[in-house]
C-alpha cells in the first residue's frame, strides 16, 4: 500500500506522443492506474498521426534523451537497432559541415539514434503499454478540465469519445498531466477558471522544412552516417540533414531561417540541396530513388510558457513537453527535453513528502531548469540572424561571437568537439565551454583556422598568377 500526501489512485495523461508516453511510464511507478487520453486513432505499427504532423520530418534523438529512455526501457537501444535504426557514437557518425568545414570525427562513446520518428514512438509506446497499470484510450479528445466547486483543484477532465457513436463523458483523476503539445489549451482553461495564463516568450525564427524519403544503399561509404550541414550565420541561412533510417531509407530535411525555405517541387528541392556547403547531401539525393513526395513544415517561432512564474495554479494539474516549451526544431532537442522533464517529475514524486499544494510549483521549477539549457542554446543561435525577433537574452551577441569560435574550433581540436557535443546533447551546461582551459584551446584552434585560411588564399592567388 502506498503512503503519500498526494492521493495516488488514478492519473490521466493528455496526449500520447513522446511527452505523454514518458509521463505515463513515470507515473505508473507512483499511481495505481494511469490512463493516456489521445485524440487521434493510434495504430500498433509506426505511423505519423494528424495530431503530430512534425513526425514526418527528420528526427534525431540526442544522447541525453536516449540515455534516459534506456533508463526507463533498458531494452530500447537494442530494439531500435533490431528494427533498423542506427544507434551509434555521435562523434563518429556525424559527417557535419559547419562554419566553413567539417567538424573532426573521433571516438567518444556518446550514443544517439536516427530512425523515423514513428518507429521510435511505436517502440516507446509498446513498452509503455506493456506496463500492467497503463491504458491508452485513443479517439478521445479532451475538451476541458473538471474542478472542485471552488476551482482550487482539478479532479478530472471532460472528453469527447469518438467511436461507433460520439459521446461526452467525465473522467475523474487525482492528477491530470497535459502533454498535448504546443497547441495545449491549458492557458485558456486556466483563464476560464479565473487563474492567470502563463507569460509567454516567443522568438520568431521563420524556419521552414522540406522533407523527402529516399532509398538507401547501406554499402554507400556514407550509408550509416548522419550527414549535416548547418549555416555560418548570418552569412548563410540554410541547413540540411540526411539521416539513415530503418528499411534502408534516407530521410532528408532541408530548409532555412528567416523565410529562406526550400521549394517542394523536384527541381527547386534539388537546387536547394545543391546550394548547401556539405556536397554529400546533394550527391546522395541526386543519385538515389525517391520514395515519397516532398512535404513542407513551417515553424514560425519558438515558444516558452513560464508556468514556473505563476503565483496561483490549481492542484491536481501539471503541464509537460512541448506544451511548456517548443524549440526551433533544427537543434533536435524537443524529445529529449520532454523526456528529461518526465524524469524530473519522477524524482519529485519519489519524494513521498511532497504536499499536493506544492507539487505544481515544485515541478514547474524543475521543468524550467530542464528547459533553460535547450532554450538558451537554440534562442542564442537564432539571434545570430538579424531577422529573429523576441526577448533577446542579455549578452547574447558577445556569447555568440565566442560560440562561433567554438564551432570553428571543433574542426581542429577533438577536445573542443567533445565538450561541444556534451553541451549540444544536453549533458553539460553551456558554461562548461567557458572554462579558462577550454577558452585557450578554442583560441589556439582558431589561430590554426586562420593560418589554414591564409594558406588556402595564398595557394589560390599563386594558382591565378601561374
Ligand atoms: C519539424 C520538426 C522536427 C523536429 N525534430 C526533432 C528532432 O530531431 N529531435 C527532437 O528531439 N525533437 C524534434 N522535434 C520536436 C519533437 O517533435 C517534440 O518535441 C516531441 O514530439 C514532444 O512533443 P509532445 O509529446 O510534447 O507533443 P506532440 O508531439 O505535439 O504531441 C501532442 C499529442 O497530444 C495529442 N492531443 C492534442 N490535443 C489533444 C486533446 N485535446 N485531447 C487528446 N489528445 C490531444 C496530439 O494528437 C498528439 O498526439 C521536431 C519538431 C518539429 C516541428
Describe this structure in words.
The chain has helices at residues 18-27, 63-72, 76-82, 90-93, 117-129, 186-192, 266-274, 279-287, 334-350, 356-382, 396-409, 414-424, 436-465, and strands at 10-14, 33-37, 60-61, 86-89, 94-98, 101-102, 111-114, 134-137, 140-147, 154-161, 167-172, 175-178, 199-215, 226-230, 238-245, 249-256, 295-306, 317-319, 325-326. The protein has 466 residues and is of the alpha/beta class. Strand 1, helix 1 and strand 2 (33-37) form a beta-alpha-beta unit. The longest helix has 30 residues, at 436-465. The mean pLDDT is 95. It is globular, with a radius of gyration of 23 Å. The strands form 4 sheets. It has an 8-stranded mixed beta sheet, sandwiched between helices. It folds into 3 domains: 10-85 and 117-201 and 302-378, FAD/NAD(P)-binding domain, CATH 3.50.50.60; 202-299, Alpha-Beta Plaits (2-Layer Sandwich); 396-465, no CATH class. The protein binds flavin-adenine dinucleotide (FAD).
Summed up, what is this model?
This protein is α/β, with parallel strands linked by helices.
Present the secondary structure layout:
Blueprint: E1 10-14, H1 18-27, E2 33-37, E3 60-61, H2 63-72, H3 76-82, E4 86-89, H4 90-93, E5 94-98, E6 101-102, E7 111-114, H5 117-129, E8 134-137, E9 140-147, E10 154-161, E11 167-172, E12 175-178, H6 186-192, E13 199-215, E14 226-230, E15 238-245, E16 249-256, H7 266-274, H8 279-287, E17 295-306, E18 317-319, E19 325-326, H9 334-350, H10 356-382, H11 396-409, H12 414-424, H13 436-465
Parallel strand pairs: 1-2, 1-12, 2-8, 5-14, 12-18
Antiparallel strand pairs: 3-7, 4-7, 5-6, 9-10, 10-11, 13-16, 13-17, 14-15, 15-16, 17-19
Amino acid at each position: 500500500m502506498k503512503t503519500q500526501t498526494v492521493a495516488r489512485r488514478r492519473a490521466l495523461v493528455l496526449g500520447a506522443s513522446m511527452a505523454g508516453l514518458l509521463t505515463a511510464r513515470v507515473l505508473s511507478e507512483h499511481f495505481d492506474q494511469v490512463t493516456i487520453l489521445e485524440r487521434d486513432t493510434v495504430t500498433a505499427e509506426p505511423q505519423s498521426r494528424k495530431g503530430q504532423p512534425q513526425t514526418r520530418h527528420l528526427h534525431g534523438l540526442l544522447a541525453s534523451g536516449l540515455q534516459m529512455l534506456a533508463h526507463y526501457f533498458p531494452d530500447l537501444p537494442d530494439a531500435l537497432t533490431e528494427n533498423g535504426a542506427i544507434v551509434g557514437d555521435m562523434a563518429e557518425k556525424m559527417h557535419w559541415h559547419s562554419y566553413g568545414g567539417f567538424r573532426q570525427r573521433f571516438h567518444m562513446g556518446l550514443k544517439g539514434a536516427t530512425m523515423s520518428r514513428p518507429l521510435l514512438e511505436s517502440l516507446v509506446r509498446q513498452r509503455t503499454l506493456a506496463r500492467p497499470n497503463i491504458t491508452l484510450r485513443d479517439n478521445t479528445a479532451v475538451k476541458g478540465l473538471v474542478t472542485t466547486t471552488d476551482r482550487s483543484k482539478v479532479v478530472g477532465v471532460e472528453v469527447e469519445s469518438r467511436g461507433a457513436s460520439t459521446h461526452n463523458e467525465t473522467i475523474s483523476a487525482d492528477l491530470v498531466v497535459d502533454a498535448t503539445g504546443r497547441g495545449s489549451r491549458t492557458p485558456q482553461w486556466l483563464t476560464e477558471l479565473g487563474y492567470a495564463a502563463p507569460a509567454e516568450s516567443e522568438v520568431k525564427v521563420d524556419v521552414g522544412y522540406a522533407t523527402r524519403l529516399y532509398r538507401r544503399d547501406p554499402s554507400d561509404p556514407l550509408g550509416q552516417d548522419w550527414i549535416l550541414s548547418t549555416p555560418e550565420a548570418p552569412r548563410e541561412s540554410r541547413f540540411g540533414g540526411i539521416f539513415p533510417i530503418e528499411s534502408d531509407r534516407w530521410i532528408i530535411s532541408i530548409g532555412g531561417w528567416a523565410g529562406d525555405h526550400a521549394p517542394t517541387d523536384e527541381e527547386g528541392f534539388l537546387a536547394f540541396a545543391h546550394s548547401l556547403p556539405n556536397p554529400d547531401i546533394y550527391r546522395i539525393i541526386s543519385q538515389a530513388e525517391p520514395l515519397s513526395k516532398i512535404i513542407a513544415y513551417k515553424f514560425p517561432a519558438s515558444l516558452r510558457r513560464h508556468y514556473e512564474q505563476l503565483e496561483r495554479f490549481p492542484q491536481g494539474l501539471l503541464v509537460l513537453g512541448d506544451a511548456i516549451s517548443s524549440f526551433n526544431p533544427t537543434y533536435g532537442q524537443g524529445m529529449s527535453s520532454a523526456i528529461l522533464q518526465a524524469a524530473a517529475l519522477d524524482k519529485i514524486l519519489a519524494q513521498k513528502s511532497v504536499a499536493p499544494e506544492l507539487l505544481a510549483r515544485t515541478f514547474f521549477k524543475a521543468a524550467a531548469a530542464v528547459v533553460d539549457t535547450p532554450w538558451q542554446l537554440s534562442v542564442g543561435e537564432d539571434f545570430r540572424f538579424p531577422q529573429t525577433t523576441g526577448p533577446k537574452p542579455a549578452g547574447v551577441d558577445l556569447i555568440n561571437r565566442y560560440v562561433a569560435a567554438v564551432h570553428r574550433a571543433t574542426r581542429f581540436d577533438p577536445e573542443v568537439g567533445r565538450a561541444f557535443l556534451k553541451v549540444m546533447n544536453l549533458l553539460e551546461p553551456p558554461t562548461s565551454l567557458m572554462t579558462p582551459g577550454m577558452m585557450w584551446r578554442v583560441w589556439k584552434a582558431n589561430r590554426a583556422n586562420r593560418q589554414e585560411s591564409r594558406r588556402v588564399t595564398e595557394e589560390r592567388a599563386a594558382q591565378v598568377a601561374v
